[in-house]
Amino acid sequence: MLAGSTAILLLVCGLIAFAFLKRRPASPAKRVWIVGAGLVFPITVLTALLAYGLVIGERLLPRQSSDLVRVSAESSQWRWVFGYDGGGRRTYDALHIPAGRPVDVVLTTADVIHAFWVPRLGGKMDAVPGRQNVLRIEADRPGIYAGVCAEYCGIGHARHGFRVVAHDAAGWQAFSAGDRP
Amino acid sequence: MNMIVRLLAGLTLWAAAFSLIYAMEGAACALEWHQLSFGPLNAARTLLVGLWILSLLALAYLSWSFWPRARMGGTLDRVAFGAALAGLAAAAYTGMPTATLSLCL
Amino acid sequence: MNALRRHRDLARIWDSPPGWRGALASVNHSQLGIRLILTAFIFFLIGGILAMLIRAQLATPGSAFAGPDVYNQLFTMHGSIMMFLFAIPMFEGFAIYMLPKMLGSRDFAFPRITAYGWWCYLFGGSLLIIAMLAGLAPDSGWFMYTPLSSKPYSPGINSDFWLLGITFVEISAIVTAVDIVVSILKVRAPGMSLDKMPLFAWYMLVTAGMMLIGFPPLILGSVLLELERAFGWPFFDAARGGDSLLWQHLFWLFGHPEVYIIFLPAAGVISTILPVMARTKILGYGWIVGAILALGFLSFGLWVHHMFTVGIPHMALAFFSAASTLVAIPTAVQIFAWIGTLWSGRPQLRMPMLYLIGFFVTFVMGGLTGVMVAVVPFDWQAHDSAFVTAHLHYVLVGGFVFPMFAAAYYWLAHFTGRQRQYRLGTLAFWLIFVGFNMTFFLMHLVGLLGQPRRIDTYPEGIGWTFYNLLSSVGSFVLAFGIALFVIDISLQFFHAPRSRRNPWRAGTLEWGMSLPPPSYNIGSIPHVESRDPLEDDPRLAHRLAAGKGYLSEPRRGWRETMAVDIVTGRADHILVVPGNTMLPIVTALVTGAFFVLMLLKFYWLTPLPLAGMAWLGWRWAAALGRKEDVGPLPIRGEETALTHAEVEDPPGWWGSAFLLAADATFFGALLFGYAYLWTIAPNWPPPRLMEASLLTLGLGLLGAGVASAARHRPAAQREGLGLAGTAAMLIALTLSAFFAPPPTEHAYNAALGVMFGYAGFHVFVALLAQLFVLRRRRAGYHSAARRAEPRIAQLWTDYAAGVTAIVLTASHVPALMA
Question: Are A37 and A99 found together in one domain?
Fold first, then answer.
């Protein structure tokens, strides 16, 4: 996408520059400019891009999977409460997940709209009053990832961050068994 | 005034179809019509694809009926025809997900 | 009559009286256009200063320059000012000044409305600035998402300032849009058929049409949120059957078209300037008109792309993702039509062209990142990050501010009558261009690194520091550039040689007058034969001043201009527009009193300004009209035409029709909200439904039918039946509202309350209109020829009848069925 955009930008700049550099008015027909450059070219590029985006989007949806882990995240001004095993266990401002397995985060809010975003683990999703939204994330390898609240939520918005701790298989087992992380 | 109506007809029809399909998608998921099916046909998908095809037929007819004026008439008759075609193309493009993507997920 | 004599006579009729009284009473479009432009530019500078404060805060990590409470006010006000108080009024002012001149007319269709629009804008904008100076500025973001902006989380007066101030300004935008649409469709030079209109008029026609459809949803949203905040009607409170996402739908239903509403006038400026700079004609006029129409419509199919992360099913996102990529195509048609135009001519690198090149580079980049965020998975990553901040500034500054700077240099001679002399502008351009790109290009990168929007600070050592510091430096370079621009322009106002007529040798009519133009624009109105009248006849300006066109003989002290057939541009009738009056400023003050009383929570006093507005509306209509028929009057040579008072559909009828179109959008959005809450919102069904009654429903429907069907009867019967039908509607609505459950209990009840209130308001307006017609007929204002007033009143009655029928059906029938 970046390379394609750069190429298009350079093309447009080049076409404009040439309009000033050329000696005499010399224009291809209206058909070339409007039909060719204005219609056919963007339609081709955009259709391909849209199809690609939709296919990827379908793949990112929270579908059923055998090794799926489900955690809950309740955001509030300005704290994150993460719950495991149907809410039996809680952690604050730090989410524990297994690495290499798909994780569904069920998002709710106690007050205003917040958004869960861990830039290195994939997309973001809003926590909306009265609803439960599900975001699928997956960490490729164990480690600690920084998360932020992406939706403006008042005075504490900038400090409304959290951490995601992705465990290896052994670490996740230990965490699930109830050891303090 | 008829000219103004013709200029706006195709794209208005697109806007109506687009809103209707989106509204029906929301209603279908809220009322769980995607759990219903008639034989091999999923109720929600049949409804949405049906609306999509209807809108395409209507816009194709509209474009076709504007063609004689576009061939004989002035600039604005050609613009009206082009706008109807644009409406048809837009309906085909924006309605395509009804047939191809997963429902209510 | 010689040219000088004509000038004196016309000036006596059209000039505003000197002194402050004249300034308050003026309805002249040139004066009001300039006032709007200057006011909007002052707001631009205020918004710019706020932007610099934001950049000062973000320049270093952990900065203590502004606390989060102040910072939240800064970015909320920056966004709100730039969107509502700068961009829209700026192009409105430009259009108000320029359109009549380009279309070959002497004023807008509704000069008093033009003035009312400016006063409303000035007062509403001032409310927000006062709030800011008092430290009470709105702080929930320019998008005001509920429930953060609702009473429990924003208990102060801050959000009320936004809701009431912006709604006040929106009223001005709606009435101005009606003014613009009717003026373009009806008030042109004879011969100017739709396909000979300058492209700028096409752009403004579509823009104003979009405003009529796009703004009502936001006004509705603001009304609902203010009702929730003031009286506890829970439209957006999930616990009581409301939904915060309803606000987002209503807001973006306005908010996305808004971007194109801002871009299209600027594109119109480009399509006007660029061919002149390239010494050629625009390539593909018909294609561009088609592209404008397509943009106007498609841009309404994008709003959900601001909501890709709120948890809507993927298929629904795909509709909007498809529409968002699709909208790039008409944009591409225009961009390549412009580049093709440059190729087919001999472009010269003059000052306006420099800004147009700045536009091309910046806007194309903004468009490309726009296509990126239209792709759903990419947006899940980029949404609400600094990447989007960068994108939107590339689109809006590239697509609006750069073309407006080009317009400033291109038309400056028109405003000042002076030519550009100093070379400061070139340096200003380069500072602006470099400063802008330095500020915002880096935001793409830091956004992709994970910096969210609207944070007041960030920690050190996560790699954002360097980008933010450079961004801030860039923003100060940009600010220096804008300061130089101001100096450059001011110098020209006060100290530059006079310009000759038509300095760019352009073909459009606005250059066919002396510079700066007189209050009446042109001594006589041309017959237009092509898209570039001045190219056909370079001496047109002299011939018009010498009275060789229409309406060259001033008569009866009337402000006359020509009205034409919409499509063919055939001369249709003479439009006599009202002269200077205090009504606009008084009405704006009374309107303002309503908003201020709401703001101060003196709700029990608000009926006073409402009654005042009804009375002023009456005066407004009563100031027009005549008691005798004048018949056809000469307009040019042997040709004659009727005055607007004696034609079937005068501009007043069209104005009512378009105002009702906007009103219908408001009502449509309200019905959408009702249906949306019912199907989608959590915590439904409500604890109890209203007490429905077939009798009440029947009475209301009968009344609506009678009031609407009365049109075919003779005057006296029509009036009687109309009043009876209207009274029946009023009774049915009152009964329904009386038996509805209390609005604070559940969103269902609140929605019913608003629907009954809306219908009741319109029935009341219809009642006033009918009483007005009754009084006027008895006073002798109507005749077989002067028949427009009853027709306009009938329009309002029909609308009220339709609304009442729908509201009663939508409220009683579901409750009866349950």
Answer: no
